[in-house]
Amino acid sequence: MQPSFYEQVHQITKLIPKGRVTTYGAIAKALGAARSSRMVGTAMMHAHDPRLDVPAHRVVNHIGLLTGKHHFDNPNQMQVLLESEGIIIINDQVKDFKKLFWNPLEEI
Q1: Which of 63, 71, 85, 100 is packed most tightly, with the most Cβ within 10 A?
Q2: What is the CATH T-level fold of the domain 5-100, as seen in this structure?
Q3: Using CA atoms, how far apart are residues 89 and 94, in angstroms rounded to an integer?
Q4: How far apart are CA 89 and CA 6, in angstroms?
Q5: What is the rounded distance in angstroms from the CA atom of residue 78 to the CA atom of residue 64?
């Protein structure tokens, strides 16, 4: 049986290395559903169950903004998690986003 869309999103998200980030759109493209970045965002909202072990904090919007931060228990948690991995956040945006971007199409 094929995994659900959400499960596929979570599987890709688990591959993002510590200290790197990707985007909703990049995950959607990797799944062959380029126009489904909002669905990827919804999958990330459902990824906060600790039993799933999905590093949802590593998924940001197309310019590196922490648009998903309000879906964490604490709105600062996403930034804290990224900073604990060495990523610098300035005004809710990943510094050096292009350098830290992990493209699942090239990596998996």
Answers
A1: 100
A2: Arc Repressor Mutant, subunit A (1.10.10)
A3: 5
A4: 27
A5: 12
Q: Which residues pair with 101 in a beta bridge?
A: 21
Burial environment of residue 105 by CB neighbours within 10 A (0 to 12, 13 to 18, 19 or more): exposed
Q: Reduce the DSSP state of residue 67 to 3 states and report it.
A: coil
Contacts of 15 (CB under 8 A, 6+ apart): 104, 107, 108
Chain segment 11-69, per-residue pLDDT in tens: 999 999 999 999 999 999 999 999 999 999 999 998 888 888 999 999 999 999 999 99
CA distance 33 to 50: 26
